[in-house]
């Protein structure tokens, strides 16, 4: 690697050279032949150049969620509720897998940046045995815990049955998700964005193609219902994993280095795991609150998150893409460009999310009918979509501030904002508003985002004052 391909990134407060690497949620993801690209190019042009690949990857992930729900909703209403209940567990699984991958990715990027390829491959070699161990542990816990989790979330025997069936399949056979996450991060650490993108596209297409075949038993196949949806999901994940395996697999190093290297991996990866896990627990908390009203209320919230994953693609891409730009300029002392990147992303994000606000407030009924014909779900969801749509604008600021602090190495502030939003505000406010009635529950969303934004502004002003 020559000097032209090297960048200096801030990783948890440390300046680390990283070239030809991937930056995802705080780590380099883009090759550039110009080491001053992030420091001299117009900010809006940088974001327009690097955002499309990220948006494509997130669109693919959104399709996974939407397609499963679309076909399951046509098959049974109880299955749709089951998907909403399982969703937090799937988020937790992704948090563990991706967070571990981020730790490996960051460690490899560091050693590739200082030209120690042997050490980088050592961390890559630990990835496969480590992720297999995580998969076995997660699968075993979920298999035995699933019935209790289902009964905790609903009283409906039909929904409980669907939760157990779907949950056990997607969790016990999640080997594809775990290995694909690790091998993808290994490839990205070496600057290979193409192979993971192909893997995600093919995996999504396989899932989409198999869903109707397995769920409805087309072309002579057995009619498997919600189990078919789960099987289609894990097959798609396994196919994606097989595509990245050839380039992503690394030979395991001696066992003697495992304890030290695993500690370093999780030193880098745990903040990411904790932040993503926080979302798991707040959605679980909201599900439990809504379950006191009806299964239809839980379904309505689940359908919101399905649509949210689609409408939040531009915002998610902005979150990912501004991190290397801010990190680069902060490390080089260009605070004006850091502020410009923040302001550009806030204005652009609000403009994009205003479209989401309009859609959620103008056609909520039509959006819900894509997945369900249950009049109670549609009635509850229509009210809910109005309120969550209003929350989209302040949500931009609450989420952009979070990644700003991550980019400048202020991990404590970033983590605090996540905890404030997901644990301190969402669930307690959801409980308090729900005591006034189901319709009042939806006030939780705009109030939480406004309060999180105010905390973010307070942290930002204190941070900028310290830079003078």
TrEMBL record:
It is found in: Cell membrane. InterPro entries: MATE_fam (IPR002528), MATE_MdtK (IPR050222), MdtK-like (IPR048279). One of its GO terms (biological process) is monoatomic ion transport. GO terms for cellular component: plasma membrane. GO terms for molecular function: antiporter activity; xenobiotic transmembrane transporter activity. It is a multi-pass membrane protein. Its main location: membrane. The chain crosses the membrane at residues 46-67, 87-114, 126-146, 166-186, 198-219, 225-245, 311-330, 342-363, 383-404, 416-434, 440-460. Keywords: Antiport, Cell membrane, Ion transport, Membrane, Transmembrane, Transmembrane helix, Transport. Multidrug efflux pump. Belongs to the multi antimicrobial extrusion (MATE) (TC 2.A.66.1) family. NCBIfam families: matE. This is Probable multidrug resistance protein NorM. It comes from Roseburia faecis. The lineage of its organism: Bacteria, Bacillati, Bacillota, Clostridia, Lachnospirales.
